[in-house]
Amino acid sequence: DPIHGLVVGRYRDLVASSKFTFCPEGVHVESYRLWEALEVSSIPITTCDSYFEGLLGHGHPLPCVHDWTWSALQATMELVENDSDYACKVVSWYQEYRLSLVHKLRRALM
Q: What is the pLDDT tens value at each position of the chain, 110 positions in all?
């Protein structure tokens, strides 16, 4: 739909079928697209920014680019594709990250 964009289910299917999801900054360096990609096991590519170290923890496995040129994106995607276990590392990391958030929330509520 040119006025309203993709229907939610179609958007989710599109992201889920993508190996990579580009997650450039908008109003803020972090966007919903990062979390949408992680939820469906697509590898998000973000902007290289120290903000993500604070949000996701030091050493998180998410790839990033310093600029959004096609050559920078291609180089990043090639690095990831050369590591056959990379997608599994991201999925495992995200599962642990989500679990840690649940534990933090439980402790905060007690």
A: 566 778 888 889 999 999 999 999 988 899 999 999 999 999 999 999 999 999 999 989 999 999 999 999 999 999 999 999 999 999 999 999 999 999 999 999 98
**pTM: predicted TM-score of the whole model, two decimal places:** 0.87
Decide if 21 contacts 65 (C-beta within 8 A): no
H or E element at residue 10: helix 8-16
- Residue with structure tokens 């999801």? 21
Instruction: Tell me if residue 12 falls in helix, strand or coil.
Output: helix
- Name residues whose C-beta falls within 8 Å of residue 36's C-beta, 6 or more positions apart in sequence: 12, 15, 21
Written as one string, the DSSP assignment of 50-106 is HHHHHHH-TT----EESS--HHHHHHHHHHHHTSTTHHHHHHHHHHHHHHHHHHHHH
Could you tell me if 45 and 60 are in contact, meaning their C-beta atoms sit under 8 angstroms apart?
Answer: no
* Euclidean distance between CA atoms 95 and 92, whole angstroms: 5
